[in-house]
Design brief:
Elements: H1 5-12, H2 26-37, E1 49-53, H3 56-68, H4 74-77, E2 102-109, H5 115-132, E3 136-140, H6 143-148, H7 150-158, E4 165-174
Antiparallel strand pairs: 1-2, 2-4, 3-4
Helix pairs in contact: 2-5
Bound molecules: flavin mononucleotide.
Length: about 200
Amino acid sequence: MNMNDIVKMMTERRTIRRFRPEQISEKELNAILEAGLHAPNGGGGQSAIIVACQNIELNNELGRISRNVENITGAKMGRVSSEQPSIVDDENIINGFYDAPTVLTIFAQKDNYNQTGDCFVAAENMIIAAWSLGIGSCIVGRSAKTFATERGKEVQAVWGLHDEYEARLHVALGYPEGNTPSYKPRKNGRVIRINPKA
Ligand SMILES: Cc1cc2nc3c(=O)[nH]c(=O)nc-3n(C[C@H](O)[C@H](O)[C@H](O)COP(=O)(O)O)c2cc1C
């Protein structure tokens, strides 16, 4: 079977947590955002809002808040990555966005029925688009808690997003530093096929 290029991208993509400091280009960022904007969306509502922040100081500040809003330990979650440790794996990582130069935050409209789904499919489109351009990404959770802090609320208001919006996830983006993490075998038993005669 020949895998087409998109499937190849999906199977070869890895979460990246080590980024080079230089910023991604405007053209690359725009292509990634276009991919996000064209994601499927519940009821055709296009409800998700993507904030693309390239203010390094602000990204680092929010990344530090994100790191500390929840006490997630390896004991609870197990090891995430030995090659590119996550905050769960390494207590010395102080920035939950791993010093990525661009951080997207995807906000949902709280009263929208499909709010969370819209945000995550947009993120998936963007991380695949990023990978196709040689840009690494890491999805980061805890965003609702990050933006529920006093500083988070302040930043959200400055971004013009009122209470009807709630952050669902972040996508940290940047050029990968070092080797691509190796392939992780897929667990068995995660697909159940019902054949036509069953
Ligand atoms: C919903 C979701 C939340 C995630 N949150 C985090 C996070 O907060 N921090 C982090 O370093 N990685 C996070 N990740 C990335 C996962 O750790 C990563 O996808 C997983 O280890 C599998 O690795 P791979 O993407 O290279 O296949 C998240 C991924 C998803 C889908």
